[in-house]
């Protein structure tokens, strides 16, 4: 039995509220159970120096957790003068994931920065950030299309992410914190809507896993991502 009482292949309740930030070109508040992430997308008429003059656009991301997003207060990283290694790793992951669903030539020479701020954490914050980040990105691109600043939709496919793992010997979908902290194996699966894999992060701690179990987790991830993509499309319709 899972701590939440969910079935092994059952996602947490997912909701996506759009246009929650007045000034951002795209924004949403995504809730995956008790994990809540505020995602915004900001258009900028510039690109990093390494692609300047190429005609290609760029999508990047920043990620952070509010001090009381967790059970005890976290110190703001700004007070230490630098980001932690985990933060840097996650925001690079979000950027890579979102770029995999973008035709950068169609985007043109402009940058979209997706900011993901965790306001409440209960496991799967990077997955919620990627899933909500795509929604914010979609809304920002819609404004470019409406203004005729671009003529071709640069978004190739929705991108979504979900965690899966082996908890109490059973493969489970969408781990919350009690499961994540006890899982012998856990992973993050990032896919496009057509099922193409973007990235898989798998690790075992205190356990190992077989190829058959890996295949089971992949099947769960595909189910979860399909449900998330449906929620993304409904939110941006």
From TrEMBL:
Keywords carried by this UniProt record: Nucleotidyltransferase, RNA-binding, rRNA processing, Transferase, tRNA processing, tRNA-binding
GO molecular function, one term: 3'-5'-RNA exonuclease activity
E.C. no: 2.7.7.56
Pfam families: RNase_PH, RNase_PH_C
The UniProt record lists the keyword Metal-binding: no
Domain Exoribonuclease phosphorolytic: 10-140, 158-224
Family membership: Belongs to the RNase PH family.
Job of this protein: Phosphorolytic 3'-5' exoribonuclease that plays an important role in tRNA 3'-end maturation. Removes nucleotide residues following the 3'-CCA terminus of tRNAs; can also add nucleotides to the ends of RNA molecules by using nucleoside diphosphates as substrates, but this may not be physiologically important. Probably plays a role in initiation of 16S rRNA degradation (leading to ribosome degradation) during starvation.
Subunit structure and binding partners: Homohexameric ring arranged as a trimer of dimers.
Entry protein name: Ribonuclease PH
Source organism per UniProt: Tropicibacter naphthalenivorans
Lineage: Bacteria, Pseudomonadati, Pseudomonadota, Alphaproteobacteria, Rhodobacterales
């Amino acid at each position: 039995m899972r701590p939440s009482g969910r079935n092994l292949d059952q996602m947490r309740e997912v909701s996506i509220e759009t246009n929650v930030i007045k000034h951002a070109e795209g924004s949403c508040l995504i809730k995956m159970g008790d994990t809540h992430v505020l995602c915004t997308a900001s258009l900028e008429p510039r690109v990093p120096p390494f692609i300047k003059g190429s005609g290609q656009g760029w999508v990047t991301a920043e990620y952070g957790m509010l001090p009381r997003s967790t059970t005890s207060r976290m110190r703001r990283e700004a007070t230490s003068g630098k980001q932690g290694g985990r933060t840097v790793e996650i925001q690079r992951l979000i950027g890579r994931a979102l770029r995999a669903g973008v035709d950068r030539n169609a985007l043109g020479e402009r940058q979209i920065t997706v900011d993901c701020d965790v306001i409440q954490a209960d496991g799967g914050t990077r997955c919620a950030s990627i899933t909500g980040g795509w929604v914010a990105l979609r809304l920002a691109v819609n404004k470019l299309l409406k203004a005729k600043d671009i003529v071709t939709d640069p978004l190739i496919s929705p991108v979504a992410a979900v965690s899966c793992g082996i908890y109490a010997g059973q493969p489970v979908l969408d781990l919350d914190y009690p499961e994540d902290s006890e899982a012998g194996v856990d992973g993050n699966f990032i896919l496009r809507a057509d099922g193409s894999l973007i990235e898989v992060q798998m690790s075992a701690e205190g356990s190992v896993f077989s190829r058959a179990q890996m295949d089971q987790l992949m099947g769960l991830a595909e189910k979860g991502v399909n449900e998330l993509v449906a929620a993304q499309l409904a939110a941006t319709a």
